[in-house]
Design a protein that fits this description.
The protein is an alpha/beta fold and about 250 residues long. Helix content is about 40%, strand content about 15%. It is globular and about 60 Å long.
Length: about 250
């Protein structure tokens, strides 16, 4: 089994299970992650996903031995690891320990939020291997940290330690070594406690709005906002607030 999928209440944890290869991604891993992400989006009782790696590393990128043998880990319409071109509608958190390099860094960048053990290392070393970080690394890194800093890391292939990644805003939360998954579950449960339609709409608006023309941003978000305001959960949220109790979300 290349990916271990485990449910933790309303959170789906997906663990790449190739520790001897530092969780390098081959086609089997991409297919397994894509299948798990489909389950995350399709199951209304699941609210948040977490991607992590087994054995002290997140992911060292593409399996180069498989690549030399002619195998490609990208899936049609979904990209590397089944996610870089088509992230899920629901929030996805990367729980990073050890190496998140090359495609592993791109996998983390495809997630909405990153929690990292403070000994984790990020990087796009493709230029040192005659490759290009074409699975979102060059596109997303400059969106997450200052463009000039992102360009330096992309052109040098240098590694970024977790503390630096946190300082630049790439990493949301730092954790003690070995506890990134636990910290990611804490964050996931904070998100999962909120109204699922509101969470998904918020993710969608924040992802899409940078590309919206200034004169159309209110029109473009209106339909998404109105759909949430007309939901059963919107009424439940207001009612629960007035009654001073915890809301019971239905995702409707």
């Amino acid at each position: 089994m290349s990916v271990v999928v485990e449910r933790r209440a309303s959170v789906l944890v997906m663990t790449i299970d190739r520790p001897a290869q530092r969780n390098a991604v081959n086609r089997a891993v991409s297919l397994a992650l894509a299948e798990a992400l489909d389950v995350l989006d399709a199951n209304p009782t699941l609210r948040v996903g977490i991607v992590t790696g087994m054995g002290g590393n997140f992911c060292s990128g593409m399996d180069l031995r498989a690549f030399v043998d002619g195998e490609r880990p990208e899936l049609e319409g979904r990209g590397f690891a089944g996610v870089t071109e088509k992230p899920p509608a629901k929030p996805l958190i990367a729980a990073v320990e050890g190496y998140a390099l090359a495609g592993g860094c791109e996998l983390a960048l495809a997630c909405d939020l990153i929690v990292a053990g403070d000994t984790a290392m990020f990087g796009l070393p493709e230029v040192s291997r005659g490759l290009v970080a074409g699975s979102g690394g060059l596109v997303r890194l400059r969106e997450r940290i200052p463009p000039a800093i992102a360009l330096e890391y992309a052109l040098t292939g240098a590694r970024m330690d977790a503390a630096t990644a946190h300082r630049w805003g790439l990493v949301n939360r730092l954790a003690l070594p070995g506890s990134a998954l636990e910290a990611a579950l804490t964050l996931a449960n904070e998100i999962a406690g909120n109204a699922p339609l509101s969470v998904m709409a918020s993710k969608r608006i924040m992802a899409a709005s940078p590309d919206w023309p200034l004169d159309r941003r209110w029109d473009l978000q209106r339909d998404m906002v109105e759909t949430v305001l007309a939901s059963v959960d919107a009424q439940e949220g207001a009612r629960a607030f007035a009654e001073k109790r915890a809301p019971v979300w239905l995702g409707e």
